[in-house]
């Protein structure tokens, strides 16, 4: 596995480049995203595949004061209560996955200048999830479908489309399960019906160009370890 520092504040010119250079962005410029750019990304992402063309997603895009108000509400909820997600977050992993997850945490804290033993600093860093890591726009993905494995695949296909299309526009993203941690807060802010489940969200904006944290490119296992030809 190779670890690299990759600039990500320029546009991706091909699908391959978008896939190879995309990673989660944790520091953003405050430049607003033009509405026509957001319209273009999400309209194209609606072409994502889904089971029998069921299209189980709904998308909510927040900028400006609405984004600020929800960031404050979510941060307050995270400080005062435990997560109550409407989807089952994974609780167990194979040993090799646990190692990758631990290594990622150590690397991210290291690049962010946080000592692993500094719980207060780690908690503050975690809370940045709920202010969208400073991104000017926040996105929530919801669904009225009964959640199952295939609905999850469909939502994943849609999310990947958004991530790559954003990269094509020179934008950075951070998909966040944490944004589904307090669904009632989101539902109240967006006036959603009770049957509309808050699945997850993502932060999106222009990556801060001089950020070492943004340049850290998470490693992947090699093709020889995970892919077999017959």
TrEMBL record:
Record-annotated Nitroreductase domain positions: 19-206
Cofactor(s) this protein requires: FMN
Coiled coil start-end: none
UniProt KW keywords: Flavoprotein, FMN, Oxidoreductase
GO MF term (any one): oxidoreductase activity
Pfam families: Nitroreductase
Lineage top rank: taxon: Bacteria
Membrane-spanning residues: none
InterPro entries membership: Nitroreductase, Nitroreductase-like
Similarity remark: Belongs to the nitroreductase family.
Protein name: Nitroreductase
């Amino acid at each position: 596995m190779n670890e690299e520092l990759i600039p990500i504040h320029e546009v991706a010119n091909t699908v391959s480049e978008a896939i190879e250079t995309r990673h989660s962005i944790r520091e953003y410029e405050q430049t607003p995203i033009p509405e026509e750019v957001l319209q273009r990304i999400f309209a194209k992402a609606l072409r994502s595949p889904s089971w029998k063309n069921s299209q189980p997603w709904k998308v909510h895009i927040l900028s400006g004061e609405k984004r600020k108000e929800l960031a404050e509400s979510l941060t307050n909820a995270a400080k005062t209560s435990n997560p109550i997600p409407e989807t089952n977050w994974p609780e167990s992993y194979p040993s090799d996955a646990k190692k990758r997850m631990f290594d990622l945490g150590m690397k991210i804290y290291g690049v962010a200048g946080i000592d692993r033993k500094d719980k207060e600093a780690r908690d503050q860093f975690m809370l940045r999830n709920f202010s969208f890591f400073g991104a000017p726009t926040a996105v929530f993905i919801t669904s009225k479908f009964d959640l199952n494995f295939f609905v999850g695949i469909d939502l994943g296909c849609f999310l990947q489309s958004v991530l790559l299309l954003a990269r094509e526009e020179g934008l950075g993203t951070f998909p966040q399960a944490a944004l589904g941690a307090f669904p009632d807060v989101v539902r109240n802010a967006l006036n959603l019906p009770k049957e509309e489940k808050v699945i997850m969200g993502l932060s999106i904006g222009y990556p801060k160009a001089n950020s070492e944290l943004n340049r850290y490119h998470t490693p992947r296992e090699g093709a020889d370890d995970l892919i077999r030809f017959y």
